[in-house]
Write a structure and sequence with these properties.
This protein has 358 residues and is an alpha+beta fold. It is 45% helix and 21% strand. The protein has a 6-stranded antiparallel beta sheet. A 5-stranded mixed beta sheet has the order 8-9-7-12-13, with helices on both faces. The chain is elongated, with a radius of gyration of 38 Å.
Length: 358
């Protein structure tokens, strides 16, 4: 800590002050017209060759905007502003050579031979001194009452602009956080927590969208409803944890078998539903057969060392512009139960009658 600040602030107080300064994210930022214009106005009103917006950092004073000096920062040991931030309001030094605090300052005894200083405190909203808006001259002088008032008013505008910038950054962060939270909530509201597939409500929304596209001329698709056969046996013999593992593994198997464009959802319990957009029934039947083969090749999960195998009964129907959604789902459910009555581990596809134009 600088010797002057050390004599006025405790280490804890200085850390609070520096944290307040850091919160504005102003240090080492590029030049900005809004701040440059304020130092121009300060120099003009106070008839001073030098005007600076500066902030007192841990080991330096850094200039956000500067007129009349060729540097952007100086060490705190030669800083007049480090004195200025230790008292409220305006800090005025009419003649630096007659002030014992500054008479031996190298900026006074050597180039640029500063003789006059007036600084208006830049203070955070919670009262932490951050820096100054100051004007300097090469000759002894003072400020008129109006100049002093204007310098402080301009300093207030510096802080008002910084507060606006801070509020904008906070708003951007808040909006980003809210958007992320909204996306996460939307994800969890539409996703089955066990499998990561669409839940029933989300699938119905996606299905309604696809049916609307089909009614407007898009290529018809296919719908498949699957039920894991004898699933109660897994829960009864191995426990619900094993049942959950089997459902997760089955969902993974569906991801492997079906296309990326296909939409897989968990309809409820051990029932799943799959939308195959722009797919004829024959193509969908081949996909169902691939799933049957995948399930038959290897165990779907293990309970300890014992492999768990499952089969699935499948109902399959077309998604066409002629049908309504409720009727289509009822038809699909009926086809699934036909598959289960036929002995399970099979697919029952609806029969579409062909018009006879002979």
């Amino acid at each position: 800590m600088n010797k002057l600040l050390k004599g006025c602030l405790s280490p804890d107080q200085e850390e609070v002050r520096l944290a307040a300064l850091a919160a504005y994210e102003i240090l080492d930022t590029p030049e900005e017209a809004a701040f440059d214009e304020l130092v121009e106005v300060a120099a003009y009103i106070c008839d001073a060759p030098i005007a600076v917006i500066n902030f007192v950092d841990r080991h330096r004073q850094w200039f956000k905007a500067v007129k009349g000096l060729g540097v952007r920062e100086t060490p705190l040991d030669v800083s007049i502003c480090a004195h200025a931030i230790m008292q409220p309001g305006l800090f005025i030094v009419p003649d630096t050579t007659r002030d014992p605090r500054f008479a031996q300052n190298p900026l006074v005894t050597g180039e640029p031979h500063l003789r006059f200083y007036a600084g208006a405190l830049l203070e955070s909203h919670d009262g932490q001194p951050l820096g100054t808006l100051c004007v300097l001259d090469y000759k002894p002088r003072t400020l008129s009452e109006r100049q002093a008032f204007a310098l402080q008013a301009l300093a207030n505008q510096v802080m008002a602009h910084m507060e606006l910038m801070l509020a904008h950054r906070q708003q951007v962060t808040l909006i980003r956080d809210l958007d992320a939270a909204r996306k996460e909530m939307t994800h969890w509201a539409s996703t089955d927590s066990l499998t990561g597939l669409l839940n029933r409500r989300a699938f119905e929304q996606r299905l309604s969208q696809e049916l609307a596209l089909v009614k407007r001329g898009a290529r018809p698709g296919a719908l498949m409803m699957l039920d894991l056969d004898d699933f109660k046996r897994i829960n009864d013999n191995f426990g619900h944890h094993a049942g959950d593992d089997a459902i997760v593994c089955f969902a993974d198997a569906c991801r492997e078998v079906f296309r990326q464009a296909d939409v897989v959802g968990r309809w409820g319990g051990e029932e799943f539903i799959i939308l195959l957009p722009s797919t004829e029934l024959g193509e969908a039947g081949h996909a169902a057969e691939r799933l049957h083969q995948s399930l038959s090749r290897e165990p779907i999960a293990r309970s300890g060392s014992e492999p768990l195998t499952v089969t699935a009964s499948i109902g399959l129907c077309a998604l066409t512009p002629d049908g309504e959604l409720d009727d289509t789902l009822r038809n699909l459910d009926a086809l699934l139960y036909q598959a289960k009555r036929k002995g399970r581990n099979c697919t029952v596809c609806e029969v579409i009658e062909q018009d006879d134009h002979d």
